[in-house]
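new request in #modeling-help
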Amino acid sequence: MDNKIAETKIPPIRNGTVIDHIANGQSLNVLKILGVNEHNIDSVISIGMHVRSNKIKGWKDVIKVEDRELDPTTVGKIALIAPDATISIIRDFYVADKFRVKLDDHIIGLAKCSNPNCITNRGEPVTPEFAVEERNPPKLRCAYCDRILTNISDNLL
Amino acid sequence: MDFYDKDLVSIRDLDREQINYILELSEKMIPYAKGEKVKKVLDGKVLGNLFFEPSTRTKLSFESAAGRLGCSVIDVSEMSMTSMSKGETLADTIKMVDGYCDVIVLRHPHEGAARLAAKFSENPVINAGDGAGSHPTQTLLDLFTMRSAKGSLDGLNIVLVGDLKYGRTVHSLAEALTMFGAKLTFVAPESLQMPADTFNHIVDKGCRPSKTAVLEDVIGQADVLYVTRIQKERFPDPAEYQKVAGLYRIGNAILREAKSDMIVMHPLPRVDEIMPEVDSTPHAKYFEQAFNGVPVRMALLCAILGGEL
């Protein structure tokens, strides 16, 4: 019932992607990942913030992106800040594919290390790399300096 | 035990069996480290000793270890003397030095530098300290000193005192000691206690360390008292430093509370954490600990470069 109310607040889309079950308050960070501020999006994006969720018995955010299907890199980044998110690919109003975001055991090139003294932040020709120790909430350890990545959303690449 | 051609970046790279192997090999190295016996098993090999940060003991003991085994050394002791001062990346420096030697020993001010070097080098890399990160050869020589003095590492009661927050040696040491079932006690004011990440790692490994700020309460049970320097440069206010620096000054008075066979260790340099009067007591093991850097590093070089006694 609640979900239906949420659906009516955010109109259905013909083609594109629905990112659902984003942790409450994280939709602005997801928009950052989608590159909304970079003027490179030619489609409509609808956002539901603080929407009631039956699944998690609390609040969530929802984003609908028209005419765009997300690439694996973008999905990987979303998994870092919204590990419960589900992605639905919509084609002609129907759900063509639906999956939950998933973090790999190793994250390469999605975020930079939060330790300013880490060698990966000193202009060396390497891509930041992390071992995923916990998935929800994500706990990432830098493969170089061994530190835990703090403030993931501030360190996305 | 397969150390041949392997990197040593962090003590986490080694398991208990591998650590024991190096400690046993170190024991055999002692007469060679003292020059009582000579065998140039690494004759013809070259060690690249890259120190981009100040060091006395680590650099000299690697040079001594290599020399005792007949391995020649090429070295860099200041970043300003290298092309890195012209903006060359560490990756490029490593690829270049890699062509000049058979093993690279690296001390660098940035955390993760040794892991990066290992990635770009064909030859094995030994981490000799990367910023506030790891210093695995120091951990091995600390373990060796404890084992030599106590006969075994199993179940020792070890009290670590001083700057447990920033002192890199204590983090790797505490982690390694958990593999041997040590009972750990961390003595420091709350502001300098063991960081949560290391503390949790130790707890995850099944160890139940205790914390206190009062050394007098725990010194009586200790088999080993491991003292670290409180680093002045960490304190913006000199008055704050003085308050903390004076907290744990080890002298003969407090040692009267300790077991007669308790040993006092310190990675050195010391400032005034251990009073000179302690040097002549049987408790003092810190200079022997500094010497142990040679046999332990000889053992590592032999294992990594394939030299056999």
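bot summary: The mean pLDDT of chain A is 88.
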